[in-house]
C-alpha cells in the first residue's frame, strides 16, 4: 500500500505520517529531509543556490543514504556522516525552498524516492509533491493544511523543544516565504492532487488527525 501525504510546513504531516505508518505496519519516508540534506551540503560548499546545473551535479555525486529507525524517523547519512539533526537548523530552514526549485536536483531525489517506495513493502511518504508527482498512483492521497498562525506556533514549539530560540514573527515570515516559493515554483509545486482528501488540522490534535486518515483508508479499502 502506498500512502501520499502532502501539505505546507507545520500542517502536521511528519507526525501524522509516522503514526499512520506505525499503526499500519508500513515504512515512512520524510522526503523534506532529503531536500534538507542537499541544502546542508550546498551551504557547506558555498554553492550558488540558484545554479540548477551545479545543484544537479552535487546531488548526483554525493552519497545520500536513507535509513529508518524504530520510531519511524527518517535518518539521513550524507557521505557517511549522520546529519539527521543538522538538517533542522535555522540556516537550512531558511534556504531549503530555494534549493528545492532546482529541476535537476528534484529529478535525482524523486528517482531515489520512487526506488525506496518500490523496495518497500508498503510506504507512507510525506512531502509537497508526493500525490501529484512522486507516487502518482498512490492508493491513498491526503493533503494536510492548517492556518498560518497555527502552523507557525507548531514549528515554534518544535524548535523550543529542541532548545532553539526563534522569534515567532521571523518564523511566521519564513513560513510564509517558504509556502510561496513551494507553491509558485515551476517544477512540481505544492498543490492538492485532484483525488486527495483535504484535512484542515487547525482544530485537531495528532490523534484525531490520525484517526481521520486511518478511517478514510479503511473506508476506501472496504469498498474495494
Ligand atoms: O517538510 P519540510 O519542511 O522538511 O520540507 C523542507 C522543504 O523541502 C520544503 O519547504 C520544500 C521542499 N520539499 C519539496 O520541495 N518537495 C518535497 N516532496 C518535500 C519537501
Task: Explain what this protein looks like in three dimensions.
- By secondary structure, the protein is of the alpha/beta class.
- The chain contains 9 helices and 8 strands.
- The chain has a single domain (2-223), classed as 3-Layer(aba) Sandwich (Rossmann fold), CATH 3.40.50.300.
- The strands form 2 sheets. Strands 2-6-1-7-8 form a 5-stranded parallel β-sheet.
- It is globular, with a radius of gyration of 17 Å.
- 41% of the residues are buried.
- The mean pLDDT is 95.
- It binds 2'-deoxycytidine-5'-monophosphate (DC).
Strand content: 15-25%
How are helices and strands ordered from N to C? EHEHHEEEHHEHEHHEH
Please report the total strand number as a whole number.
8
Low-confidence spans: none
**In which range does the helix fraction lie?**
40-55%
What's the alpha carbon Rg, rounded to whole Å?
Answer: 17 Å
The 3D shape can be described as globular
How many helical elements? 9
Amino acid at each position: 500500500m502506498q500512502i501520499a501525504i502532502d501539505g505546507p510546513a507545520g500542517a502536521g504531516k511528519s507526525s501524522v505520517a509516522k503514526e499512520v505508518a506505525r499503526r499500519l505496519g508500513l515504512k515512512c519516508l520524510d522526503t523534506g529531509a532529503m531536500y534538507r540534506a542537499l541544502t546542508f551540503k550546498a551551504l557547506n560548499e558555498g554553492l550558488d543556490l540558484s545554479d540548477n546545473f551545479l545543484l544537479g551535479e552535487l546531488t548526483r555525486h554525493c552519497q545520500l543514504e536513507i535509513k529508518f529507525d524504530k520510531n519511524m524517523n527518517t535518518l539521513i547519512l550524507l557521505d557517511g556522516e549522520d546529519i539527521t539533526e543538522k538538517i533542522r537548523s535555522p540556516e537550512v530552514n531558511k534556504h531549503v525552498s530555494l534549493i528545492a526549485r532546482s529541476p535537476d536536483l528534484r529529478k535525482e531525489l524523486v528517482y531515489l524516492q520512487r526506488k525506496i517506495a518500490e523496495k518497500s513493502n508498503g510506504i507512507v511518504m510525506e512531502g509537497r509533491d508526493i500525490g501529484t508527482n512522486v507516487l502518482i498512483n498512490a492508493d491513498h492521497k491526503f493533503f494536510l493544511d492548517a492556518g498560518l498562525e497555527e502552523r507557525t506556533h507548531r514549528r515554534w514549539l518544535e524548535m523550543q523543544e529542541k532548545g532553539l530560540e526563534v522569534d515567532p514573527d521571523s518564523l511566521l515570515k519564513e513560513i510564509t516565504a517558504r509556502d510561496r516559493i513551494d507553491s509558485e515554483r515551476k517544477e512540481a509545486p505544492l498543490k492538492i492532487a485532484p483525488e486527495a482528501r483535504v484535512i484542515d488540522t487547525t482544530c485537531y490534535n495528532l490523534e484525531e488527525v490520525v484517526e481521520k486518515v486511518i478511517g478514510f483508508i479503511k473506508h476506501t479499502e472496504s469498498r474495494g
